[in-house]
Amino acid sequence: MTTKPVSHATTETSGVWRVITASSVGTLIEWYDFYIFGSLATILSAQFFPKDNPTAGFLSTLATFAAGFIVRPFGALVFGRLGDLVGRKYTFLLTLVLMGGSTFLIGCVPGYESIGMLAPALVLLLRLIQGLALGGEYGGAATYVAEHSPEGKRGYFTSFIQTTATLGLFVSLGVILLTRQTLGTDVFNAWGWRVPFILSAILVGVSIYIRLRMSESPIFQKIKAEGKISTNPLKESFGKKANLKMVLLALFGATAGQGVIWYTGQFYALSFIQKICNVEFAQSNYIIALALLVATPFFVIFGGLSDRIGRRNIMLAGMLLGVLTYRPIYRAMYSLADTTQKTELTFRQSIETKKERVEGTDEFKTTTSAVRYYDDGTVYREIQPQPGSALTAVSKEVTLGNEAFWLMTVLVLVQVLYVTMVYGPIAAFLVELFPTRIRYTSMSLPYHIGNGVFGGLTPFIATSLVETANKTGSLDSYLQGLWYPIGIAAVCLIIGALYIDKKQYKTVED
């Protein structure tokens, strides 16, 4: 009887799962830290920016959120180089500490009313540190897991790392909703929003303990022992024409399209539901959270499938579906919350008046809400401030009826399924493009430009396009923001279809 030879990169299955667990816990917490800011954008805009122009404040918050994405490629260069020189383990341990510390400090920054413009300046600085840290985290975690995975199952095992980004968003939404429900809406809006940020210190402490017990990648240990470590990973990655070509192909044929699909299906969907559809805060977060919960296993399904049929076709199919269906999906989402298309129950109209003390002052805010009810269970509130009230902005709030709520959740779920198609296989795809000695550096840069810059700017650019369309009176102005992700995904789809091999397999040990 013959025994099938085992690659030196292959560990026992239990060992692989220990590696995945240790890597995933830390990466999930980093994504949680990074995305809590985006999940709370509507509240943070009132905390760190002047309240006299809510739209400008919200766009400024999105811009601050996007700044963390813009610097991610720089983090990829700094920490990618460090990971190829020193090792995978200690590099993404360092990124975890930086991310956790920055998130904790954002929860401690005083608001605009206390320290003026210093507040948004400090938050911006901390967001930049977060972005740098995340720029070094993902490449390290994906490389570490891939270098422990059996050949032929790399897509399956690395797909568990891919779930952490969505699970991090899911956890952030869960913590936010639990904190809000425990403290109450008014307390949460006043200071309770800080709790999810401060809580990250505990989560990071647990993750640091777990990661300290990890060993270095066996592949990296081997090339280090053989003296094959790159002396200049940046030069080898981007100074050599052959490798630079693969970096550019990874960016414009895969990660840019993957990035806009990822952020459209999750973050822009949340922003659209809250700011354009005016759906009530808690209900909008429940919609996203439910869609994420149902869709998350599909990261693993598509990652495993990519081991059998190749990475390219699955990723490109996700981009194609986004290009073809985003506008119909968002038109349907808008119509679910559009009360002009519903039958009002006029006999149930009511007026609600509420007077409350403004937290930390002797002023009171008084609001009058005109409440309207519709035959599908939808409730619409238009909240008007009374003269002399500390509250100056008019706000609109739609609470969807049961059927509309579930239909909205399904529409978001469809978008998140596109996300799982493009994101599930991409870690294995990137790892297989580059040699071990410069893998951390080479894969991190195109990933973080595509995902961080092209993708991370999606909520800000899309919202800005909608605002511009509103001012110019464009037809279907609420859909104009979709041209950005559709355009990027279409270009990436064409390049990927033309230039990426149908099957991209490579021995990770080189």
TrEMBL record:
Keywords: Cell membrane, Membrane, Transmembrane, Transmembrane helix, Transport. Its main location: membrane. It is a multi-pass membrane protein. It comes from the Bacteria. GO terms for cellular component: plasma membrane. One of its GO terms (molecular function) is transmembrane transporter activity. Residues 19-504 form the Major facilitator superfamily (MFS) profile domain. The keyword ATP-binding does not apply. InterPro entries: MFS_dom, MFS_sugar_transport-like, MFS_trans_sf, Sugar_transporter_CS. The chain crosses the membrane at residues 32-50, 56-79, 91-112, 118-135, 156-179, 191-212, 246-265, 285-306, 313-330, 404-433, 445-462, 482-500. It is found in: Cell membrane. This is MHS family proline/betaine transporter-like MFS transporter. It comes from Larkinella arboricola.
